[in-house]
Predict the 3D structure of the following.
Amino acid sequence: MDFKGFDHPGSSGGDGTRSVKVMIAGGFGTGKTTMVRSVSDIRPLTTEETLTQASVGVDHLIGVTDKTETTVSLDFGKIRLNDELVLYLFGTPGQERFWFLWNGLFKGALGAVVLVDTRRLASSFRAIEEMERQDVPFVIALNIFPDSPEHPVDEIRDALDISPDIPVVAFDARDRHSSRDVLAVLISHLKEHSAVVALESR
Ligand SMILES: Nc1nc2c(ncn2[C@@H]2O[C@H](COP(=O)(O)OP(=O)(O)OP(=O)(O)O)[C@@H](O)[C@H]2O)c(=O)[nH]1
Ligand SMILES: [Mg+2]
């Protein structure tokens, strides 16, 4: 696969379309592959393998007991958000034993969506730390399952220990419109973020 043209801060095509690389990150089984699948305009590339004994006792399967597959390398999808913007979506693997892949995956990424399952908040802590470490601006997307507890957003924000300017939105990863809305929130956040960075660097 040719990933040329993804260098920061996104590349412009001859027709004025801007291509931007966006990461879909989050803990194990939070719905990253589901989101890339639901929102992509093209048939997404996924690299799923059957869950093996290697994950027993390592990954917390509460709430995802019917899960049979896990991403071993990446998910890849593409969506045209509007006339000017095409997003290339890179879903990360959730299992800790594949996290060594993350450094390479983030190269050239302009922003990220961090998926959180509110039944297992802690599973996304490491993903949030990783965004902060790699200095990738992100939004939090709460993937709501039928038995998800209803916590006020402020409590979730406190539990995740994120700054007040980071958007937190609830969504359904299986739903194309809902997933698309999350990407639109990310793009507005990136616009605000780059305005703040521009002001700070004056
Ligand atoms: N009810 C419900 N089930 C969901 C939702 N999103 C995902 N699922 C299910 O939850 C499981 C986990 O989804 P995946 O998309 O594989 O999660 P992932 O984050 O890619 O997982 P890893 O790659 O293993 O980290 C699957 O069995 C999905 O069918 C949702 O919004 N609601
Ligand atoms: Mg996956």
Remarks:
- Residues 26, 28-34, 64, 66-67, 70-71, 93-95, 143, 145-146, 172-174 surround guanosine-5'-triphosphate (ligand 1) (CB under 6 Å).
- Helices lie at 32-39, 102-105, 125-134, 153-160, 176-200.
